[in-house]
């Protein structure tokens, strides 16, 4: 065997090795993408459930509003809650639209960016739901008691307040406390927004806000990026030599 034959055989082996590595890379990509899709299916189920609950709430609140158009003490709390639930519905629809528009044939980095936008949306939605829950607990209580039990909370507060004014002051203090907590949460989230990537604790908190399914989906895509960024192939080995 002369030198030219040896070079030819080595080139053929390099070509076969490159082909095997490409097949392995494709298999790894498909495996991790299947994990991403599976995680997102769980996310879709959760978002659909949230959307259905929000639709039911909006329909019920709409009926409640129509029935209390001439009672501002019930109308205004119901409208306030209804507006917030409609905004939540919009966030759910945006999440579902974002997932449905994903194109897995695009480069992984592009899919990562799309899921990153979805992650930001879910974090913001969760944050606002938490903050508004501290503010809207009293209007929600007024509407629920009246709508389901026929109980007039304003009438009860008035009757109790005539006997013990400190009770009314306690309720007002709790409402104001909820508002203060919401404002503090807004300040904290804006103050430390740029430190999330540098703080493992904050990153875990944001992962919890985004949801376990979405976090797993992004982790699967990260695995593809790490695998594809590693030096592979016979050509890569040859270049080192």
Describe the protein.
With 241 residues, the protein is an all-alpha fold. Helices cover 87% and strands 0% of the residues. The chain has helices at residues 3-67, 72-100, 108-149, 153-163, 165-191, 200-210, 212-229, 234-240. Residues 234-241 have low confidence and may be disordered. It has one domain (25-230).
How is the topology of this model organized?
Layout: H1 3-67, H2 72-100, H3 108-149, H4 153-163, H5 165-191, H6 200-210, H7 212-229, H8 234-240
Helix pairs in contact: 1-2, 1-7, 2-3, 3-5, 3-6, 3-7, 4-5
Biggest sheet statistics: none
Number of self-contained structural domains: 1
Radius of gyration over alpha carbons? 28 Å
Total helices: the number is 8
Could you give the count of β-strands?
A: 0
Q: What would you call the structural class?
A: mainly alpha
Q: Uncertain spans, ≥5 residues at pLDDT below 50?
A: 234-241
How far the N terminus sits from the C terminus, by CA atoms, comes to: 23 Å
Residue share in helix: over 70%
Principal-axes shape call: elongated
Mean residue pLDDT = 79
Report strand %. Answer: under 5%
H and E string: HHHHHHHH
